[in-house]
Structure formats: structure tokens, C-alpha cells
Amino acid sequence: MFKRIAKFLFKCTLFFIVTSICWVILYKWVAVPYTPLMGIRAAQAEGSYETKHDWVSIDEISPQLQLAVVCAEDQKFTNHNGFDYKAIKKAYVGNQNGKSIKGGSTISQQTAKNVFLWPKRSWLRKGMEVWFTFLIETLWSKERILEVYLNSIEMGNGVYGAEAASQHWFNKPAKHLSRHEAAAIAAILPNPRKYKASPRSVYVEGRKQWILWQMGNFGALSLRKERKND
């Protein structure tokens, strides 16, 4: 009996590993058409609900927005292997002390969660998030990770990705976003269903100004060298 259970679990684990690797390899080249979060939000919506999502290549996304989200969400993105261990430790200590829950998630972890998993916190999801983060960091370039991230994250109520967000908030293509517009969109990412990039609340405007300051300190964002890993 034990051997049968062990054999079944081994087959299930092997199937998951092979399937997940193939899935990640597919999305290395293919645009992500839909994410689990999009489906969850649509199922939870009351009344009419529209999902706005238009995939564009990273070359069609303003470099200002690319820089803004890195400065807002993960300033070590170009250097880490998918995990910011200091941020994770800080978040863990803060949560243990009863402070508001913070994830310490990198852009790579957020990409893994948004594209392959579901938003609800659990040890199972976090474990799978680690696995998918490892896979995309191994099989994708940093440029591809940022491209998928910018095309998949929630940027408003029913608004997903840079192109849809740019059209929704500023009535223009993502490639034409200004520095201030890019910072405004990045400023709402902690809670894009609550905050608005335009018109902005005092809180969002303050966060936008902080992001602009970080962008000035960060300098140019260079990801092109990552192409050699493709």
C-alpha cells in the first residue's frame, strides 16, 4: 500500500515538474493571453465587468514606465536571482511582530504569481511561487521577465498590463507615456483597484513624487545585455 502511494506521488510530482517547465518555456516566446487573476476578478465581479488587456512587446512600452516600476517595486531586480533575501527577512520579522503583512516579493516573484498561480496567500502557493520564480529566472532573460510583468499585472479595476493602463488612465499608447505619467501608474501598484493614477489622491501624488526621486537616483535601466541568455 505504501509503495503504491509513494509511486502515485512520484508520478504526480514528475508530471507537475515536466508540465511546469514546458509551460514556462512556452511563455518564454508566446504572449500570455490570460492570467488566473483575470479569471478570479471576473468571477468575483458583480454585474457587468470588462477585462482590459492588450499585449505589446517591451519595445512598445515606455522606458520611463519600465524604470518607474523597477524603482517602485524592486530596485534590485537587475542583480538578484529572483529573491531579495533581506526584504523577505524584514517582511517575516515585521509579520511576526504583528505589523501589517508585507510580502517582500520581487518583480520575478510577482510575475510567477500573476502568470502561473493565484493571489490568495498560503504555504502551498508560496512554495509553488518559489518554484516558478526559479524557473523563469533560469529560463527567461530579465528583459522577458519585465516584459511579461508589465503586460500581466493589475493596473486598475479590470485593467491589466501597460498598454491597457496607459489607454485607461491617459488615453495614449504605453510607448508614449511621459516620466510623470509612468510614475503615476507605478504609484498605484500596491492597490490598483483602490488607487487612481488620474486624478490622483494626495497619497498617490506623494508616492508618485517619491518614485520620480528614485528614478533620478537609479539612473538608466539596462536589460539588453540579458538577451545573451535567450
Give a written overview of the molecule.
The chain has 230 residues and is mostly helical. It has a single domain, classed as Biosynthetic peptidoglycan transglycosylase-like (Penicillin binding protein transpeptidase fold), CATH 1.10.3810.10. Helices cover 58% and strands 3% of the residues. It has ten helices and three strands. The chain has helices spanning 2-29, 36-44, 63-73, 85-96, 107-116, 123-139, 142-152, 162-170, 179-187, 202-218, and strands at residues 52-53, 154-156, 159-160. The chain has a three-stranded mixed beta sheet with strand order 1-3-2, covered by helices on one side. Strand 2 and strand 3 (159-160) form a beta hairpin. Helix 3 crosses helix 10. The relative contact order is 0.15. Residues 225-230 have low confidence and may be disordered.
Features of the shown structure:
single chain, 230 residues, mainly alpha, Penicillin binding protein transpeptidase fold, three-stranded mixed β-sheet, 58% helix
Number of domains: 1
- Number of E strands: 3
Unreliable sequence segments: 225-230
Helix content: 55-70%
What's the gist of this structure?
The protein has 230 residues and is mainly alpha-helical.
Layout of SSEs?
Blueprint: H1 2-29, H2 36-44, E1 52-53, H3 63-73, H4 85-96, H5 107-116, H6 123-139, H7 142-152, E2 154-156, E3 159-160, H8 162-170, H9 179-187, H10 202-218
Parallel strand pairs: 1-3
Antiparallel strand pairs: 2-3
Helix pairs in contact: 1-6, 3-9, 3-10, 5-6, 5-7, 9-10
